[in-house]
Design goal:
The structure is a single chain. The chain is of the alpha/beta class. The chain has 2 domains: 142 residues, Tetrapyrrole methylase, N-terminal domain (Cobalt-precorrin-4 Transmethylase, domain 1, 3-Layer(aba) Sandwich); 105 residues, Tetrapyrrole methylase, C-terminal domain (Methyltransferase, Cobalt-precorrin-4 Transmethylase, Domain 2, 2-Layer Sandwich), CATH 3.30.950.10. The protein contains 7 helices and 10 strands. Helix 3 crosses helix 4. The model has no long low-confidence stretch (mean pLDDT 90).
């Protein structure tokens, strides 16, 4: 039976690759590399660097997987994402069937951790459900951008006795701070949704291109740091053509037994 490894390779720094991931890398005969076009070619080159650094058997092959475009103007966000995943599943299934022999091992190298804001696991489940190829797979965790962000800013993701909430810019913009939570990690925020948050002494810890040579870090009181982040983000995106960033919003801690002070 064909075997597949979904390997978390960290947020960008090749030294974030774990020992478990290195062992997995050395089991693969074929690496499926997501090709997001010339603009993001440096992401592909980082994957190649990781393989060159850690894979001892040089007989492996790299197969480039074209990433289908997602309709970002569709009225229904969830429907557009589901359609995009179906397209990915068709492509992945065909490549796994054609590029892996029955006893071979393939691998997808996933930024950060495959279990946090990544669709590879869900897409592979769709491939298996389609029944066109027999496949078993294993997931190897990695260091996520959320972990890297906290480490680079030298902060914990939680305050004493408090939860941390992970969400998207779209949800933050529409809902504000979640109830009973003072620590919010925001991912996938193209619109700088933090600008709509009432300050209330909120701190922000922001990072882009974490773990790479292009890494940018900004932190401070939201009212003061927010404009600096917007400017840095716009400049970086214009220069590179793309950006990967995340941030932690933190309101002053409170007694966990105190009444909830509401969202917004």
């Amino acid at each position: 039976m064909r075997r597949l490894l979904i390997i978390g390779i960290g947020a960008g720094d090749p030294e974030q690759v774990t020992m478990q991931a290195i062992r997995a890398l050395n089991q693969a005969d074929v690496f499926f590399v997501i090709d997001k076009g010339a603009v993001k070619q440096d992401l592909m080159l980082l994957r190649q660097e990781i393989c060159e650094r850690y894979v001892e058997n040089r007989s492996y092959r790299m197969v480039h997987v074209p990433d289908p475009d997602r309709d970002r103007g569709a009225p229904g966000y969830r429907g557009a994402v589901e359609q995009w995943r179906r397209q990915r599943a068709e492509i992945y299934g065909r490549l796994i069937r054609d590029e892996l022999t029955d006893s071979a091992c393939g691998a997808f190298l996933v930024w950060g951790d495959p279990a946090l804001y990544d669709s590879t696991i869900a897409v592979i489940e769709q491939v298996i459900a389609a029944g066109t190829v027999e496949l078993e797979y294993e997931v190897i965790p990695g260091i996520s951008s959320v972990q890297a962000l906290a480490a680079r800013h030298r902060v914990s993701l939680t305050q004493v006795g408090q939860p941390v909430h992970i969400t998207t810019g779209r949800r933050l913009s529409g809902e504000g701070f979640p109830e009973r939570c003072d620590d919010v990690v925001v991912m996938l925020d193209a619109g700088c949704s933090f600008t709509g948050i009432a300050d209330h002494g909120t701190e922000i810890y922001w990072g882009a291109y974490l773990g790479t040579k292009d890494e940018i870090l900004v932190s401070g009181n939201l009212a003061e740091a927010g404009p600096r982040i917007q400017a840095a983000r716009a400049e970086a995106r214009a220069r590179k053509g793309w950006i990967m960033d995340t941030y932690l919003l933190r309101r002053p801690g409170r007694d966990p037994a105190a009444p909830d002070r509401g969202g917004g």
